[in-house]
Amino acid sequence: MAKQSSKKDLAKLIKAYFTKYKTYNRRTYISGNPFKASKADKAHLKKRPTRSCSTCRKSPSSNKDYWIADHRPPVALSKGPYFLYPQCCDCSAIQSGIVKKKKSGMTLSAAEEKFINKPKTNYQAVATTSKRAGASDKLATNKLGKHHGCVNCKSRANPAVVADHYIPSSFYRNYVKKVFEALGLDSYLDKKNQYLTIQCWHCSNMQAHEVRNLITLIKIKAKELGITMYS
Ligand SMILES: [Zn+2]
Ligand SMILES: [Zn+2]
């Protein structure tokens, strides 16, 4: 049973979200296209000299989550032992898509099978029996990433940094806008710019999690206020 949200509580939580992720500084790039980050926007962000995370401020060299330590074979499909390989966020997302596909019983193509199996590399990956990469495993995997790049696309220039919207797209849905209005928070939804920032993989996941939680509470509030949620 979800907690009943009083008007004050939800407003407070939304304000806290905006305070936490507000990064109007030199690391912030304002997208010309407010509601969809274009390829050019993303490329522009990733080329910036300071690629440290705009949320935790960790620099690439100090962040043990900079490269994603991905298990091969994938944890969801095997009991181990596993090998940890460095992946960029794009390839890691592809990998989880393939794993989901296989788990749902669909047949994988040869290329997809190859993608999630232990790859041939000229280096030794980090061996583990643990389903969760610990701090030292992450550090060791990141060392590999630094030297050899992403195990899949070989990219060294495209590590685990994500171009994220500071104001999530889901906040611009009609029912969310109406709840923001009812709470007196509509000034938080910038009508012109949805700010794009660079985040590390870890903070990006955290932000997505927080947004999902807020959306759940906003839906409850919308129901209380009799706002329809068709859009
Ligand atoms: Zn971060
Ligand atoms: Zn990659």
Report on the architecture of this protein.
With 231 residues, this protein is α+β, with helices and mostly antiparallel strands. The chain has 2 domains: 7-58 and 161-225, no CATH class; 68-148, no CATH class. It is built from 7 helices and 5 strands; from the N terminus they run ααββααβαβαβα. α1 (7-21) packs antiparallel against α7 and α6 packs across α7. The longest helix is centred in the last third of the chain and has 25 residues, at 201-225. The radius of gyration is 20 Å and the shape is globular. The relative contact order is 0.20.
Classify the secondary structure makeup into a structural class. Answer: alpha+beta
Mean pLDDT: 84
Overall structural domain count: 2
Number of helices: 7
**Element-by-element helix/strand order:** HHEEHHEHEHEH
Q: Any chance you could write out the topology, listing elements then pairs?
A:
Elements lengths: L6 H15 L17 H9 L20 E5 L9 E6 L1 H15 L6 H7 L9 E3 L6 H14 L12 E5 L8 H9 L13 E5 H25 L6
Antiparallel strand pairs: 1-2, 2-3, 4-5
Helix pairs in contact: 1-7, 6-7
Task: Name some characteristics of this structure.
single chain, 231 residues, alpha+beta, 2 domains, three-stranded antiparallel β-sheet, two-stranded antiparallel ribbon, 7 helices, 10% strand, binds zinc ion
Quick summary:
By secondary structure, the chain is of the alpha+beta class.
